[in-house]
Amino acid sequence: MINRLRLVLITLLKLARFKPWEPVLIIIALLIATGGVSSVWLINEGARQGDIASQTPSVFANAHITAAHDDIPLTRNDYVSLRRAGFTEWIALSEDTRPLTCADDSGVGKQVDGLDIIGADTQVAQSWLVTSERYSASEATTGIVAFASPSTAARYACPGGIIRKTGHTIASVRAVNGLPDDVLVVPINAFYTGQVTPKTHPLTALLAIENIDPERQQAVKAVLPEHLQLEQASTTLSKGNLSESFRLNLWAMGVLMAVVALFIVLNAMLLMYRSRLSVAVRLRQMGVSARLLQAALLAELAVYCLISTPIGVIAGLYLTRQLTPVLQQTFSALFDSAFISPAPFLVQTISGALLITFVALSIFCVITGRQLTRATATASVRFSEWPLKWRIAISAAIVLVTGLLVWLADTTLSALVSVAAVLLGGSALIILWLPHLTRRIRDLVPPRYVLPNYVAASAITLSGKTRLAVCAFFIALSANIGMNVMTDSFRQATESWLSQRLSAPAYLYTEQSYEKVAATLPDAQAVFRGTTSMASRRVTVRSFPGSESARQSLALDAVINNDPEQAWQDFTRGKAVFVNQQFALTFNKKIADTIALDAVYPGDKSRGTPSLASQSYQIAGIYPDYGNPDTQVLLPVSRFAPAEGFSGVVALYDETAASEATLSALGETYDASKLIARSMQTFDRTFVVTDALNISTLLVAGLCFAISVSVLMMDLRPQLSVLRALGVHQWQIKLTLLAQYMVFCLLTALLAVPFGILLAWVFISRVNRYAFYWYYPMDITLSVLMQSVFISLVVVLCVLLLPVGRIKANVDLRQEAAV
Amino acid sequence: MININAISKRYSHADAPVLNNLSLTVSDGNSVSIRGASGSGKSTLLSLIAGFESPDSGSITIGSQTLPFSSEKNADIFRRRELGVIFQSYNLIECLNVWDNIAFTCRLKGNSDDSYQLHIMALLGITHLKNKPAHQLSGGEQQRVAISRALVHKPTLVLADEPTGNLDEDTSDTVSDALYSLCRSLDTTLVVVTHSEDVARMATQQCWLRHGQLHSEPA
């Protein structure tokens, strides 16, 4: 048995050497697929880490203690006294703002902060310390290690290190979360070197390394000497994010790429199998058993997989690494977001890529197993179409099963399964109907147009051989259309919601107390926030005014008895509340249901003294609240008396008339239009990454298609030879081939449009509904659909130009027809 | 002994059966030639005898083996040990050289006999092609290699589909002489499908295939 396996395997390997393009194309397909997968996974990881980093609150934004007056500085003694009094959450900070240069004399920045990391008894600070010690030990001769935000670390990547004015070198900059941009942080002992001494550079501030609760703030205030003051944590306007949605998108892109890669690998394997079928038949006729032949084929393919998968992954990693500076700068400059050079989780990535190839091998086994058993005559292995009745029955079953899965999806997992069902169902329909559709196209081409007729006729034969490549393209394109329609709908819904919600001309973001704001702007509409719970789940509470302008700004999806007037009356009287979509869907509540809220605590934490006791309310209305990860209840402003839980946000209607000086003394004022623009920028910035990944997937699918074309063109040589012998010009042949493959792409694109729209509906009404508890109206814009189809066709056209351009159809009388 | 009893075969795309209630008996070590018009079903008959395809009805017995085979494994063993097939389109493995192509079946069987292989190659006049890749051979050379491959493992039954179809007259005589004499010397049963009257006449039994049935006289 072993000897026979060896004999057949050697024969197959000799065949590979005889027709080297077969293994070469398989290896290229594997490299592209695994390289694409690892790149997308690594970029995903980098973007995910960047997303985490951009959300990690900066330690510099925490509460801090500074000198109250310029004439009496903050001293080391103040720091020591405070820590001795038990306030060990405060660490010393000093700043050096003199220019920094790279070792090659180019300037990079001008701020180094010394931070007493040793004094910080937190996990984050300790991890910095360990890193710092490790690097300092390993790079003792060259300099110290500094920490910076990911985008700053990318910008400060100087070969040879960074030189301070003191003449000391910062050997390397490590990216960490929780630091502001444009600042390098070094341990304070490394900070004070050379001419930089506590005398020349006194302490700038004492930073709270963690959030300080109000009680602790009062306690520290009590022990502070007069020349020091406590400044509250900054409540500057958050960048805003759509983090969960964004992460799900990234995850979906990773899975999508894996599925496309699976199709690519399987397609390459089946193409090779097809081109070897004649030899397989010969071997079977000589008594080589189907099992033996399959084992040899699998062994050969496994060798290719084992060789090319790690290389593909490493190539993907190398590509991502090479692209990292570009990605970091793009993320930082264009999207105001971070991209962290992903740690090469090589073992996981190679394992994932190998898993894909071995799944492809398993499917290959199933597909070829039965065929090889009866592969004793060429006639018995010819691919024949199923009868029309069967195709209709199978298609109906596919549509029914997919429809049922979509309809019955009631959890995030089943919603994602229904997405897979739509994509795979569509692929199955393509496999069933592509030859039939191409046949209908041939019927439309009059025989007098010889070449177009040949294109259409030949396309029928080719449709059987390119089905899997077409499926990969279909999946990538459908997903592209689905995601674009979903994102476009989400964008439009968000923009219209924001425009309505931000009804005031301007908003004030302040760190002052409500009393001070109310005294300065008596008619201002402040927003109060609170935290409560229902059924042991956290619920956020916000105040909402009952004024006419406020009423118009709150778009309610549904109101009690369909009577907005009654809903608002019940709300302002405190009898009823409005809840967001997330609340209604999470707790499965409808209009007019009664909800029992636990005690409401002011602010973001459910501790301390509650401002409202437990109470039951009726739901008077449900409002859309896109992008909010929380379940939320709106209560009338009157329920927040005495005013507690002031959020720091004030809607300015007539107060815009107040002098700029008054407003700027209180905080920062933003025009509503600027806030909307800023939010939409955040939106676009978030989804542009998934757009880019989507196009990468499309490109990989296009490359897969080009590989199929390259293989099939080898089979086509005898036919092309005949065409040349009949006097068809070389460029006419190239154009013919190009037209042939574009016919497939066009047909696929036409099928992908309805499936893409269906996919968008599933994303919006099922995935969003169960993953994030919100949904929004689907908006189908023709230009979005056209753009997806156009880009995909251009991508395929570009990748096809290479194999089609290379073909040389020469006349060769000795060519044999392919089996 | 081959015993074909009332077999019929119809292809799904054809109106009439290609073989219709056909019967044939060939004794061990004998040879039979089958002639007929193109498309009359000669190659199909060989395919059925080899077990590559199954008849719609009727039975085929080869020695103690009744077709269809009880299992795929038995079919493979039968093909490896008992059967030699000479295909109309040669069916050589193009990536192997002449020697490896001929030796392939013996190696599969696990009993290579280099001297016997050389003997057969000499009889067919292809010794000088020993190391030549199969894809570089002319049609006639490929045919002789295919004949060598079918005989080298000393099968009990050889099925030959147009074994001299691509050879010139002189070579055709030499090759057919070698084929028949080798089969006789090995006591191998030979079924030859041919258009050549000379090749057909060398068989101990001659048949003509018409309308799906075998006749002992030409039309």
UniProtKB/TrEMBL annotation, chain A:
Pfam family, one: FtsX
Domain ABC3 transporter permease C-terminal: 695-807
InterPro entries: ABC3_permease_C, Membrane_comp_ABC_pdt
Cell compartment(s), UniProt: Cell membrane
Top-level taxonomy: Bacteria, Pseudomonadati, Pseudomonadota, Gammaproteobacteria, Alteromonadales
Membrane-related topology note: Multi-pass membrane protein
Chief location category: membrane
Keyword tags: Cell membrane, Membrane, Transmembrane, Transmembrane helix
Membrane-spanning segments: 21-43, 250-271, 292-319, 339-367, 388-409, 415-434, 692-714, 735-764, 784-804
Keyword Transmembrane helix: yes
Protein name: FtsX-like permease family protein
UniProtKB/TrEMBL annotation, chain B:
Record InterPro entries: AAA+_ATPase, ABC_transporter-like_ATP-bd, ABC_transporter-like_CS, ABC_transpr_LolD-like, MacB-like_ATP-bd, P-loop_NTPase
Protein's UniProt keywords contain ATP-binding: yes
Domain of life: Bacteria
Domain ABC transporter as annotated: residue spans: 2-219
Sections of the chain in a coiled coil: none
The name this protein goes by in its record: ABC transporter ATP-binding protein
Cross-referenced Gene3D superfamilies: P-loop containing nucleotide triphosphate hydrolases (3.40.50.300)
Pfam families given in the database record: ABC_tran
Keyword ATP-binding: yes
GO MF term list: ATP binding
Keywords assigned: ATP-binding, Nucleotide-binding, Transport
SMART domains: AAA
